[in-house]
Design a protein that fits this description.
There is one protein chain. By secondary structure, this protein is an alpha+beta fold. It has three domains: 117 residues, OB fold (Dihydrolipoamide Acetyltransferase, E2P), CATH 2.40.50.100; 45 residues, Irregular (Dihydrolipoamide Transferase); 234 residues, Chloramphenicol acetyltransferase-like domain (Chloramphenicol Acetyltransferase, 2-Layer Sandwich). Helices cover 23% and strands 23% of the residues. It has a six-stranded mixed beta sheet, with helices on one face. A hairpin with a 5-residue loop joins strand 18 and strand 19. Helix 6 crosses helix 8. The radius of gyration is 25 Å and the shape is elongated.
Length: 428
Amino acid sequence: MSHEIFMPALSSTMTEGKIVSWTKATGDKVEKGETVVVVESDKADMDVESFYDGYLAAILVADGEVAPVGSTIALLAETEAEIPQVQEKAQQQSSSAPAPAAAPEPTPEPAAVGAVTSQNGSSSQSSGRLVASPRARKLAKQLKVDLSTLQGSGPYGRIVAEDVQQAAGQPVSAPTVTPVMPAAPAAAPVPMTAAASPATAPVTPGQVVPFNTLQGAVVRNMTASLSVPVFRVGYTITTDALDNLYKQIKSKGVTMTGLLAKAVAVTLQKHPLLYASYTEQGVKYNGNINVSVAVAMPDGGLITPVLQNADQVDIYSLSRNWKDLVARSRSKQLQPEEYNSGTFTLSNLGMFGVDRFDAILPPGQGSILAIGASRPQVVATDDGLMGVKRQMQVNITCDHRIIYGADAAAFLKDLAGLIERNPQSLTL
């Protein structure tokens, strides 16, 4: 008798998944609850665990290949003696398989798919078994480290590669994180060459490069956005006071992204419509101010890590959370709720010297704020003289089905008032 392992639906928008790597080889024994394969969803790598004991008899979708949600990706044999029979069955299935059809709509995970956890491994911690990332397991074999002797430093006690390296006495270098879009307007003039552009793989002229999984998800989301009637409102905000505050507290680990997210979140408390969303039944007022911030990924596409309850978290914790989210987003270790629970989005291209731009509204949200660079500007002062102030341009894009121009203008006015006159309140 054999059991099937299916391609799971790891998110509500997922229609297909890519096999990152099989953690078991053909013929290996598999225990119930043990990770057998790592699957790339829209924006994260997820462990897929077996619901059955048995032997991995046949791998139908190899590393790097893509399969529709719900399709069979491997077969398990109940006993070692049954492996040849199951492999014969797999060959018959492959020879009689019809031409590939369009990927089905996302459906709930089939019962025989196997449990799914993120690379953070949160759902397997309570089972009492060893919880380690596939890379950590591979390193442990190479370095001859007994995983059972290690205390995991990853989320929920998961053993990660750095734990194995430390146990083996190897130097562990901290990952270099270079946020692309979330970086904030500089508090003081900074050479623009300090901001690295996303790495681009060399291509051949005329070459067609297929979308990766994340880029495909972005394509679907942006196409869905075309059906939403939107409008845009711009505003000029003087940032001198905010820049001075940043100079004072950046040594404590505060990021400008954290300051901007906090300022937006506090202002949103007065404007619940701006972080509401449209439904066919009416306006859905969300209970949490979860600020998403767009981050470009090195291999293409973008992801929006979420600062949850940003209005309630102090600026120091918020900045630490942001650094952690960016680091884990680059290694595809975010859990779904850490990138799909946003109720308002920020997109910042100011680090590239962009003065102003319009952002595309994410599906399911009512607003997104585009932030340009903070630059010195010659302006007229209140006493009629000329002076120099640092200013940035912000543009908000809103769903016009639920938000109107006056609503967006009132929000921007209050945001400017907070940033210009009372930024110190962000540290309280």
